[in-house]
Write a structure and sequence with these properties.
Four copies of one chain form a homotetramer. With 235 residues, the first copy, chain A, is an alpha/beta fold. Chain A has nine helices and six strands, in the order αβααβααβαβαβαβα. The first copy, chain A, has helices at 10-19, 50-53, 62-81, 104-110, 117-120, 152-159, 171-184, 201-214, 221-229, and strands at residues 31-36, 86-91, 137-141, 163-169, 188-197, 217-219. Chain A has a six-stranded parallel beta sheet with strand order 3-2-1-4-5-6, with helices on both faces. In chain A, α3 packs parallel to α9 (221-229) and α7 (171-184) packs parallel to α8 (201-214). The longest helix of chain A has 20 residues, at 62-81. Chains A and B meet through α1, α4, α7 and α8 of A and α1, α2, α4, α7 and α8 of B.
C-alpha cells in the first residue's frame, strides 16, 4: 500500500517520520459501500491500454481502471454477503451541463461522434461487472462530491449509517471530493485503494496518500471484507 | 509553474499530451480574495526550516510556508489597492474538537506544553504580515472547506461575487477542500500557487496540478494583480 | 390578497400598522418559475371537494387545489412565452421512505389499496394540465425544500438565475420550505399566492402572510406575467 | 396546547378529524436543547406590552415574549440538571447585512437612535435570565435557520445527538426555519410551544400547529423535563 512512497521527496519522508499517521482509524457499526462514478466512460467499452483507450474515451483510465473494477467485484460481493447497503453515484442524466466550468471541458471533448450510437450510449452507464441490483441506491450528481446536491446525507441519516467504505473513479476527482464531504459530516471513512482508479498515476497515488493521512483509512478488498464480516448481519 | 512535472510519470505526460488542459480559465467581474488557514501554527512563530520547526509546531510548513506568506503580502496589497474584498477563514475558536476524527490527531499532538503560554496562544492567530483589517471578513470553520458549516456562501451571494482567488494552507487540505466546494457552487476560481503551502512537497505540487486540471486556474501574484487591476474599482 | 386578514387578531393588526411590510420587494433580471409538488396525490385524480377527495387521497387539497392548478396554466404559459426556465420538483421516486419521520405518516396512510393500480400510479405524477415539456428541469427531492438534497442551487448558479417565482403545494409545507432556503441563499422571491394550495385553510393563509412579511412578495398570475413580459427574451 | 384551534376553520377541523396527527412522535436517546434568537431585541430591555415595546424595539414580542423567556428558565434548568447540552444561536455579530433582503428591513428600522448606546448595545445580546454558561455552544447565524451557514450539524454529528428540543423566537421565523432543517436532516424534534414567541399571534399559533402536524411534537416545559429526566445522565 506504500506505493505512494515513490512519489514522496526525501524531505517528505523526514516530516512523515515525525508526524505521519501511524495508527489505524476505527470504523463504526453500520457501514455502507459507496461506489463513485463506475461508468463505462471511465474505462471505455473495451479493455485497452490507457493511451489507446483515450482515443475513443477521453476520460478513460484504461487497463488499470478495468483492474480496479475487477477487484471491485469481490468488494461488492462481500458487501452483499454481509447485507451492507450499496450506494452508487454517477453524473445525473439529463442535467444541463455548464459550459463555463473547467470540469465540463472533458465532457464536451467526450462526444466522440465516430463511435456507434449504441456504444456511445454506454458512457454514463454503470459497468456491468458491478452493476446495481434491486434495492441498491443509485443517485445522480451534478458536482464531483457524492454529497453536494444529492440526498446522500438524508439516506445515511435515516438508516443510521456511520461508516462509508468508498471506491471508484477518479481517485483525485470524485472519490476525493466525496471523502472530503464525508469527513466534514463526521462519517468514519475507509478508502479501498485498489478499487480506486485515475487517469494520472501521480494523482492516484498522492491522493490516496493525502486521504490516508488526513481523512480516513486506505484499505484493500480483503480488509474491507474482514470488516464487513465482523459486524454480524444487521437487524 | 510546471514544477509539478517532476512528480508526473512518463505515462502521465503521455495522457496529458492528448487530453491535458491547454487553454486558460476565465475569471469574472467581481472577485474576492480568500485566505485559508494563514495562522501561526501553520508556519511556527519563528522562521525555521521545516524539520526544525515541526519540533515545536507539528503542523508547521517551515521556511517554504514563510516564503508563501511573504509573497502573500503583495497579493493582499493588490487586492486592497483594487477594492477587492478580503475573506479570511481559520479554525473556529472554542468549537469543541472531535477526538474521533483523523484530522484532529495533529491538533492533539499540537498541544506542545513546553512552549510559553504567550507563544502557544499564537497558534490559531492570523499571521501578522497579512493580518485582516477593519472591514475584512473573518470566518471560523469546523471542517477543511471554507464553505462547509460557514456563512461564506451567504456573503458571496449577497455581494454578487463571482470569482474566488484563493491562497493559503495547506494546499492539499483546506485549500483543496475550499476549491472543491467553490467549484461545485459554480464560482470561477484562481489558485495563487506561490501563495499556497504544505508540509509535504509531493502533496503541494500534485494538488496544485489536480486543481489546475479540474477546477480552476493556477496563477501567480503578478497574474492576480493584473486581473485585479483590470476590473476598475467596483462601484 | 389580504384574505389573510381574517385570521389575524386585533392586536396583530395593531403591530402590523406600525411595523408591517408596506413597500414591494424588487425582482431581478433572470427569473425561473419553480413548481413545487404539483402531483396528482396533492389534488386527487378526480375533481372533488376536499372532504370527499381525502377518502381516496389523504394528501388531497380538493377543489381549491384544482382551482390553483387551473390558474397555474396561465402562469406556466406566461413563463414559456417569455422564455423563463421552468423547474419542477416532486418526491424522488424510489428513494426509500423513512418510517420514523413525522412527514411519512401521511405517505404510509396514502397507500390506498382500494384504488386500481393505474390510478394509484398517478400519485407522484405531475398533473397533466401543467406537465413539464422537453427542456424543463424536473428534480426529485427527499425533504420538503426544493433545495435540500437536490442540485437546484447548482442549476440556478450555472444559469445566473437571480429570482424565483414559486407556486405549488403545500403552501405551509414544501412551498414554505423552498422559500426559506431560497431566501437564505439570497435569491429574490415571488410567491404566486393564487397558485399555492394547502389542505388547511388557516395554514394556507397564514403561511402566505408569513412569507410576504419576511421572505418575498406574494403576487398573482397577472403580476407574474407582467414581470416576465417586462424582461425581454433573455439572450 | 390546542390554543391553535381558534384559528382553524370548520373545514380545517373536518379534514383534521380524518387525517390530523393523533399519535405522539418519539424522541431519541441523546437530545440537545436549542435556544433560537433569545436576544434582548426580541423582547426589549424592559418588560412592556408589545404595542408599547415596539416603539423602542421593532422586533419586540413584548410581555408574551418575556413570559416565554421566564418559562425557559425552568427548561434550561432541566437541561442542565440532566447534562443535556445547550446550544444557543443568534445573529452573527459583525456579519455584513444584506440591504436587498426583505428580512433586513426590520433590522434597518431597528436602529433606534434615541436609545442610549448602552441600551442599544443589548440588542443582539442573549437575555440574562437564560444566558449561556461556560461549556455551552454559542453559534452566530446569517439566515433564519440555525443550520444554514453554521457548524450546528458538525456539532450534532460529532456528539451523536439524535434529538433537538427547540424553543425561542420567532415561532414563525427562525424557530420554524430551524425545525425545517432539523427535520430534513432526520433529527427527532420537540418544540416547546410555551417557550416560543412571536410578534404576531396568528403566526405563533398556526406555526406551532404546522410544525406539530408535520415535523415534530409540540410539548411543554414539564414534558421536556420529564423526557430529559428519563434518560439518565449520559456517560
Amino acid at each position: 500500500m506504500a506505493q505512494w512512497d515513490r512519489f514522496l521527496t526525501e524531505r517528505d519522508k523526514g516530516v512523515l517520520a515525525v508526524w505521519g499517521k501511524k495508527d489505524h482509524d476505527e470504523f463504526g457499526q453500520r457501514p455502507a459501500l459507496l461506489l463513485v462514478d463506475v461508468y463505462y466512460g471511465s474505462v471505455g467499452h473495451e479493455r485497452k491500454p490507457i493511451l489507446e483507450s483515450i482515443r475513443d474515451w477521453p476520460m478513460s483510465c484504461g487497463l488499470e481502471g478495468w483492474a480496479a473494477v475487477d477487484r471491485m467485484v469481490g468488494l461488492v460481493a462481500a458487501a452483499r454477503k454481509n447485507a451492507v447497503p450499496l450506494i452508487y453515484v454517477r453524473g445525473m442524466p439529463s442535467f444541463p451541463s455548464d459550459p463555463s466550468r473547467v470540469i465540463e471541458r472533458g465532457k464536451s471533448k467526450r462526444r466522440v461522434d465516430h463511435l456507434p450510437a449504441e456504444v456511445r450510449r454506454l458512457d454514463n452507464e454503470i459497468i456491468g461487472e458491478v452493476a446495481p441490483r434491486e434495492g441498491d441506491i443509485v443517485l445522480g450528481k451534478t458536482a464531483p462530491s457524492a454529497f453536494n446536491g444529492t440526498p446522500l446525507l438524508h439516506y445515511l441519516r435515516q438508516t443510521g449509517i456511520d461508516t462509508l467504505i468508498i471506491c471508484g473513479e477518479s481517485t483525485s476527482g470524485c472519490v476525493r471530493a466525496s471523502v472530503l464531504d464525508a469527513q466534514a459530516l463526521r462519517f468514519k471513512i475507509g478508502i479501498v485503494g485498489e478499487c480506486c482508479y485515475d487517469r494520472i498515476e501521480a494523482s492516484h497515488w498522492i491522493n490516496l496518500f493525502d486521504m490516508h493521512q488526513k481523512y480516513g483509512e486506505v484499505i484493500d478488498v480483503a480488509g474491507a471484507a474482514t470488516y464487513f464480516g465482523s459486524l454480524g448481519t444487521p437487524s
